[in-house]
Amino acid sequence: MAKPTGAACNLDCTYCFFLSKELLHDRDSQQMSEATLERYIADFLGSQPDGDVTLEWQGGEPTMRGLPFFRRAVEIAEQYRWPAQSVRHSLQTNGTLIDDQWARFLAGNGFLVGLSMDGPAEDHDAYRVNRAGRPTHDQVLRGWKILQAHGVQTNILCTVHAANADHPLEVYRYFRDELGATYLQFIPIVERTSRKLLPLADAGWHEPGEARPFYTQKGRHVTERSVGPEQWGRFMSTIWDEWVVRDVGRVYVQHFDTALGNAMGQYSMCVHSPTCGDAVAVLHNGDVYACDHYVEPDYVRGNIAEVSLRDVLDSTEQRQFGTDKATTLSQQCQDCPVKWACWGGCPKDRFVPVDGGRHQQNYLCAGYFEFFSHITPDIARMTQLIRMGRPAAAIMKLPTTRR
């Protein structure tokens, strides 16, 4: 994924781990130049096989880079694409800067837009605030409605945290029934920190007028905003129970699709794949990092002005980064009956010592176990249906104790 504005953002979401990454660079110059843009797109398209290719734009807040930048990105992509390549773009945004001009451009160029929203206003506004500490739900909702009015392909990215974790059906039904959203991602908030930094982290990571400390994946404590393991498991299981009896094939939930794919040996989500390391992050200045969650000095892999993305992925360091996800699994994970679905979760969340300190267990382990165990019987029925040539949605016509 590319970050054309680096960590710069017009919001100040309390739980955002990425805002402090601006300390890596000059805060006032976090804009990708046209030269870096062209190098990135040429390299990215040149390293891909024929067929569908997606350029992913994230932040910070990428719309702060302005429409002219993205118009130029579309032009450059058309210039460098291979004859048999079909290039698409996806944009992850907080939605507050979306207007009719933006929406016309996004619709006209086939962008897939992910909108960050955490549910109804009371849930969303708990932590998703602007630089003045004011709520943002109404602005985000306005952006969503503009995108819908122009027919932009959209999905919702909802983080799950202490404020909304106990309201799974309210959150799900809000997106499905009130917004009409049919593609949803739920991302657990795990703010990892040290005992020393915990009071500052719980207070919002910075004193008034002071910069946030640089965030790194270290420590064995979590903030009070973080979702609890059991909360996460209940949240996803509760939504599954509503979805599986009425919304299969109509509403697409990333974790549900991922579990079904895993059951059939098709891995699509790095968090729940055996290995990782393919989703590198390219910052505004061309620096390439091992992962969006590891934008730290120890994980920089070079700059696209000097090294190709293919060379980064083929490097010893990056290969090791990816395979470590599998080779460092605890014995508990190795023996777990839902390993097929979980694969130990994201390495960033593995910080609970087990096996005499030889391995680190995922903080969310109990929740993953509850959720994946809960859905295993239904997943087995869905895979059986697919192998019989029937759609997974046919499960809604089968007898169930949930009705």
UniProtKB/TrEMBL annotation:
Coiled coil: none annotated. Keywords: 4Fe-4S, Iron, Iron-sulfur, Metal-binding, S-adenosyl-L-methionine. It holds the Pfam family SPASM. SUPFAM superfamilies: Radical SAM enzymes. GO terms for molecular function: 4 iron, 4 sulfur cluster binding; metal ion binding; oxidoreductase activity. Its cofactor is [4Fe-4S] cluster. Residues 1-234 form the Radical SAM core domain. Belongs to the radical SAM superfamily. Anaerobic sulfatase-maturating enzyme family. This is Putative arylsulfatase regulator.
